Amino acid sequence: MNYISNTDAQRQEMLHEIGVDSFEELLRDIPEELRNIKLNLSEGLSELELIKSLRELSERNADLNHYTSYLGAGAYDHFIPSVVKTVISRGEFYTSYTPYQPEVSQGTLQAVYEYQSLICELTGMDVSNASLYDGASALGEAAILTLNATNRAEIVVSKTVHPEYRAVLKTYLRGLGAPIHEIPYTEDGTTDLEELKNAVNENTASVILQNPNFFGCIERMSKSSEITHSNDALFVACVNPISLGVLKPPGEYGADLAVGEGQPLGNPIAFGGPYLGFFATTQKLMRKLPGRIVGQTKDTEGRRGFVLTLQAREQHIRREKATSNICTNQALNALAACVYLSAMGKSGVSKVARLNLQKSHYAQERLCELDGFELKFSAPPSSPGCSIFFNEFLIQCNSDPNEINKKLLNKKIIGGLPVERFYPELKNCVLFCVTEMRTKEEIDTLVATIGKRRR
């Protein structure tokens, strides 16, 4: 009773300190109908009943083991070698949390170091961190880094960058008061370089482009890098890692930072996560990298060892000197990427990329044989435009994309993404994605299910 009365007394003291007389008065701004919401919960279930109920719910999902998917837009259905799951399921990796005592976490640190080395090789950059939460947060952190590195105030970003990434970017920069200038796209689906030239000035901290962009189009990255650097701004390349098997890596066209979503590297779609954001940069910007970085060293006996190094996050140094408040990395997902890249090798990644390129172009050609279907972004014959795309392409339909997708779903086919909710001007346009997982027969079935060929 004494404990209860003391608690009541403490509660009354806190209410008095807040300036109200009762708990009910504290809630006075909440509408009455929202204070006593009754949850429509069923009676408790036994373990057997619960498992059965959950299984029935799970069967309502479009499981990719039983459905064929043409949905991409940032999450991609790629083949994952069985060795990936075998390695990341080992107890020493699966149950380990974070190397707060790095001297006794050598296995974890070595795995991260190998991941960083592979990301650098893939992107052509000098140094990588241990990964971030996802591709969108990596993009946001890259923008903040460029603001700090240049002491400039504005970010220039193309509208062809993934719209959800741009939404995260706005959230990241809102508190900093940094304006964002968005550059429109041209009729070939790529960034308007004339608009870019006019937008970049002495106040621009960085220019952000995605390649391939949200529409799957190949951007003119070398030219964009030249425009950016002519104004002493930093160039941020957001890239699909699989595409680097056929496309020039960011390090070769002068990118200062390379970021992106690492999910295609051995991580399943898994209802949106968890994923990993990769983040690589030049040696010049190395000390401003957010998150963890693992370095290689030698102990007093000359043996190779691994340490956390160059820790610019607020958990390890004085807060006013920190460049980021990111305090973790996606270690298990990064390990999956590391195992995937090690298993596939340079030639394997290149082969997967070529298959993505070839199969997506075959699918586009077949879909454009249908009555009322055409490629939305096609460049004039004289220009190197979006007739070349990677594994995604935008199709203009003569009917409601949502109705098309309902029809496909009845045949256990997950259709493309209607992009109108992100780009209102692109009405009845669908973003299709084709990876190495799709066979010729599956693509032909997709086309046959959608509609009739032109006469």
Second rung of CATH, namely the architecture of the largest domain: 3-Layer(aba) Sandwich
Number of beta-strand segments:
15
What's the shape?
globular
Strand line-up in the sheet with most strands? 2-8-7-6-5-3-4
Order of helices and strands: HHHHEHHHEHEHEHEHEEEEEHEEHEEEH
Q: Could you report the average pLDDT, rounded to the nearest whole number? A: 90
Helical coverage, percent range: 25-40%
CATH class of the largest domain: Alpha Beta
Mind telling me the CATH superfamily name of the largest domain?
Type I PLP-dependent aspartate aminotransferase-like (Major domain)
Seen as an oligomer or otherwise, the chain set is single chain
Number of separate helices? 14
Distance between the termini: 87 Å
Biggest sheet statistics? 7 strands, mixed
Task: Give the low-pLDDT segments.
Answer: none
Summed up, the domain count is 2
What would you note in describing this structure?
This protein is an alpha/beta fold and 455 residues long. It folds into two domains: 68-78 and 345-450, Aspartate Aminotransferase, domain 1 (Alpha-Beta Complex); 82-338, Type I PLP-dependent aspartate aminotransferase-like (Major domain) (Aspartate Aminotransferase, domain 2, 3-Layer(aba) Sandwich), CATH 3.40.640. The chain contains 14 helices and 15 strands. It has helices spanning 2-18, 23-26, 32-35, 47-58, 82-88, 91-94, 106-123, 135-150, 163-174, 193-199, 221-229, 331-367, 401-409, 440-450; strands at 68-69, 127-128, 154-158, 180-183, 204-211, 234-239, 257-261, 277-281, 294-298, 304-308, 374-375, 392-396, 413-414, 417-418, 429-433. The protein is globular.
